[in-house]
From TrEMBL:
It comes from the Archaea. The keyword Cell division does not apply. This is KaiC-domain, UPF0273 family protein. PANTHER family: UPF0273 PROTEIN TM_0370. Keywords: ATP-binding, Nucleotide-binding. It comes from Methanococcoides burtonii (strain DSM 6242 / NBRC 107633 / OCM 468 / ACE-M). Pfam families: ATPase.
Length: 259
């Protein structure tokens, strides 16, 4: 399989309960999918594709694997997320109407504008309030997957890395305990560091980094599984594209570069 793996390890991995992302090219890079009831960080600079990747995970969960999902939108209003992914023909509103998806608006209150949404987090910087809302929603629609997009505004609000670490750990642990397999996005500014505040990778079970960087005057998109607890995974940089059908990773191509 991947460098450093042996047959014993692979057979052990077969027994792990995997959650398929269904993102073309991704699951085969990490033993068939992410591990059930764990939380993962999706890091990248602005425009790298974190929201597309993560919404695709939720959308595929509902449409391909029968697993309902929750999206907590802290950076964009739910309306913007719905509109942005319509270009891939993903009709989130229809899934919401069917009771398979809930998008919690944790953005409007933060910026002080009224929200027409059914699900609104009125205390968006309070992780306890966010967790309570996720727990209630999970019971309502029997969700199995969640997305927090993103953790960066919560971290900016808390400022202190020790506090950020505790709050994000509470959040990721709560999601795991209630049976949600989750992605949390994290906006970075430096391609060489997978976390904005230096600690976000410690509180999640894995980190996927989307690099969108200039090399020889060309901006290239590459993905790296930086960390994945309890699983073998590719250690290489793999190119990806955002196409009219969404995110596509090229698992058999590698990119050699240094950031
Ligand atoms: N239909 C499309 N075809 C190609 N690229 C697209 C398409 N839609 C969006 N993109 C790319 O996706 C980027 C935004 O992705 P997004 O997931 O919102 O980034 P992030 O959340 O990391 O800031 C855009 O800057 C654009 O380059
Ligand atoms: Mg985004």
């Amino acid at each position: 399989m991947f460098e450093g793996s042996d047959s014993e390890k692979i057979s052990m991995e077969d027994e792990i309960n995997r959650v398929k992302t269904g993102i073309p090219g991704f699951d085969e890079l990490c033993g068939g999918g992410i591990i059930r009831d764990r939380s993962y960080l999706v890091s990248g600079t602005s425009g790298a594709g974190k929201t597309n990747f993560s919404v695709q995970y939720i959308y595929n969960g509902i449409t391909k694997y029968g697993e309902n999902g929750i999206i907590v939108a802290t950076e964009e209003r739910p309306e913007q997320i719905r509109e942005n992914v319509m270009k891939f023909d993903w009709d989130l509103q229809a899934l919401e109407d069917e009771g398979k998806l809930v998008i919690i608006d944790a953005c409007s209150t933060k910026i002080g504008i009224p929200s027409q949404e059914k699900y609104v987090d009125v205390r968006p910087f309070d992780t306890r309030s966010m967790m309570d809302q996720i727990i209630a929603t999970q019971e309502e629609i029997n969700a199995k997957r969640a997305l927090i997009d993103s953790t960066t505004s919560i971290s900016f609000y808390l400022q202190d890395p020790a506090k950020i670490r505790v709050e994000l750990l509470k959040l990721s642990t709560t999601l795991e305990v209630i049976g949600l397999t989750s992605l949390m996005t994290c906006e970075i500014v430096d391609e060489r560091s997978p976390a904005r505040f230096g600690i976000e990778t410690f509180v999640t079970d894995g980190t996927f980094v989307l690099h969108y960087a200039m090399h020889n005057n060309v901006r290239t998109r590459t993905m790296e599984i930086f960390k994945m607890r309890g699983s073998d995974h590719s250690k290489k940089l793999h190119p990806y594209d955002i196409t009219s059908e969404g995110f596509v990773i090229h698992p058999h191509e590698e990119v050699y570069t240094s950031f």
